[in-house]
Structure formats: structure tokens, C-alpha cells
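The instructor's notes for this session suggest beginning with a concrete chain rather than abstract definitions. Hand out the sequence below and ask the class to guess, before any prediction is shown, which regions might be ordered.
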Amino acid sequence: MNFVSFLGENLQTFFAYTGFSNVTFGHILMIVIGLLLIYLAISKEFEPMLLIPIGFGILIGNIPFKDAGLQLGIFEENSVLNILYQGITKGVYPSLIFLGIGSLIDFSSLIANPKLMLIGAAAQFGIFGAYALALLLGFEPNQAGAIGIIGGADGSTAIFLSAKLAPKLIGGVAISAYTYMALVPIIQPPIMRLLTTKKERLIRMKPPRAVSQTEKIIFSIMGLLLTCFLVPSGLPLLGMLFFGNVLRESGVTRRLAETARGPLLDIITILLGLTVGASMQATQMISWNLLKIFGLGAVSFIVATAAGVLFVKFFNLFLKKGDKINPLIGNAGVSAVPIPAHTSQLMGQKYDSTNHLMMHAMGPNVAGIIGSAVAAGILLGFLG
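After discussion, reveal the predicted structure:
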């Protein structure tokens, strides 16, 4: 064999392993989607902390290559990406995200006005409504459960449940959940306006009472015991949520709380977003089922928002005039803290610039976190 032919064969072999030789239309399409997410995160500031890692992860996951046992892909056992991905499949990342969230949130508004817990519960109707609709559209029960949880507007919960019930749908469920979280300020206001009257939007609520440190600690401990005795399958999420809050409120573990809501939360957010994105490969994502997931996710989110607003209107029928709740905080029953509560505040000030709803809306908003985790536990309990 002469040198020229030898070199030619080597070059031909080299080219056969390159991405240019193995690329398909699906790879190109997914790369474009990844670039779009990065653009929206940077240019429009749509959930940049999540969409940039997810978008870049999509780029990584859709670099085409010839499988030669090099352990490169995220689904190849013992590859670096596969080891990182186990943080999702084993439920590690979502649980640690809940630890960080627990150390961030303040339950004072909910403790001061326990009625607001019911709004968070009402918003979970979207989850079970979408679950039923997914069954009617032909999805398997476990897939329907993973899709329905999108209505909770909690990406970590959605990833946790889909990893347990329908691993092949993780990418579609995650991107749908985070997309609707980012679009809260766009999707929710029209629903809130449609379902409320001008008089209802002007309702002023009593300022919440001051809540003591002892009450906050007791709330987290009792919240853990009550919710996890009721739904033990929700323990990985609920346990970490309330543990994080005790770290925050105890007053003697400030360093641990700051680590949980700072460096640890940032690291886990990076790993979760990147590995979720990398799992969104062309062979997994390009199908009619993906469009169905997006559609059902939208239905779930809209129903959850509407259920929260309508529940407040119904509940007000039984409350005295001075105790009535402004239905504009009903949207905050979905999770995605604190975006829905901020949306309630902006909507309220459009009709009365002196009416501050943020502190009240945080009650159902944090209740929504608990509610979505409980709903995930219920679905996992009878579908897992």
C-alpha cells in the first residue's frame, strides 16, 4: 500500500467519525432550538439561569458522532455525561433544588393567613385535569402523570416525576415546564382579567400579622410530618424543602442556609439544566408526542391559573366584607416562585397603584410549591 492510498483511507475513516458525516436534519433542528433558547434567555431574559444551561446542553447533546464505544453520549453507560445525568434519573438534582428553595422562601404570609393554603391546593386542579386529558389522547398512565405535573409550573418537580414515571419524556416535560414558567407574565394576566370584575380587582386585604420565629420552625416541622405521612412518596422533595426552611429560620445555621440557597443551588441548577438539555436529542425529541406535551402543558397551566382565581371568587362568597381575598392573587397558586406573586402585584397596581398584593400573593405561591410536590407524590404513589 503506497503512502497516498494509506493517507486517503485514514482521512476517509476520520471523516466517517466526524459530525459532518453523521449529521441529520433532526440534529440541525435541535441545534436551532438550542440556539433559540439561548437567544431568548440573553435577549429577552426568559429564565436565563435555566434556559442558557438547557440551550447549551441541547447543543452538546446533538453533536452527531459515530458510536465506536468511546462513551461520549449521555445515554452511554459510564460516560461522563451519563454519570452527571444520573443526578436526574436518581432524583438527586430536583431534591437539592428543593433544599435551596426551602432556604430561600419565607412562609410568613402563609402562616399569617392559613386560608391562602387552599388557593395553592385549588391550583393543582390543572395537574389532574391535564392528566385525565392525556389519558384520553392515548398516553400511557405513567406518561400522563409526568405530563400533567407541568401545570404546577415547577420545573424541578416535573423533572423529578418524569424521571420516575416516564424517563423518555424528561426533555419534553422539562422544556415545556420551564417555558411556561418563563411565560407566566404573558399567559396569566389575560386569564386574570377575563375571570375578575373591576370591583374584585380593587379589593384591599388586611396586612398580614407578624409571625414569630417559633411559628416558622413549627410550621416547617409540622408541614414535613403532615405532608409526608399523607404522601410518603413525596418525601425526597418535601423533606428537603422543609429542611432547607428550618436551616433558614433557626437562626443558628446561617452558613448552611446561605450555602444551600447560594453556591449549592447555583451548581445544581447548572448541572440540572445542562444534563436535561443534553438528553434532548433528535431521536428522543422530534415526534408528534412532543407537540402534544406542549399543548397539554399549556392546558394544564391555564387550568391551574383559572382554578386558583375562580376558587378565590367562590371562597369570597363565604367571607365577611373585611376578610375578602383579592382574586388577583389566585394565579399565584401555581409554583414558579416568585414570578406569579409579582404578576399579581403588577396586575393589582394597574387598577389601584396603592394596593400592594405581593405580600399576600406569596402565601398561595409558596403553598403552590408544597401543593405541586404533594401532587407529584400522589401521582408517583399510584403510578410508580
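Then share the key points. Residues 65 and 379 are 38 Å apart (CA to CA). The radius of gyration is 23 Å.
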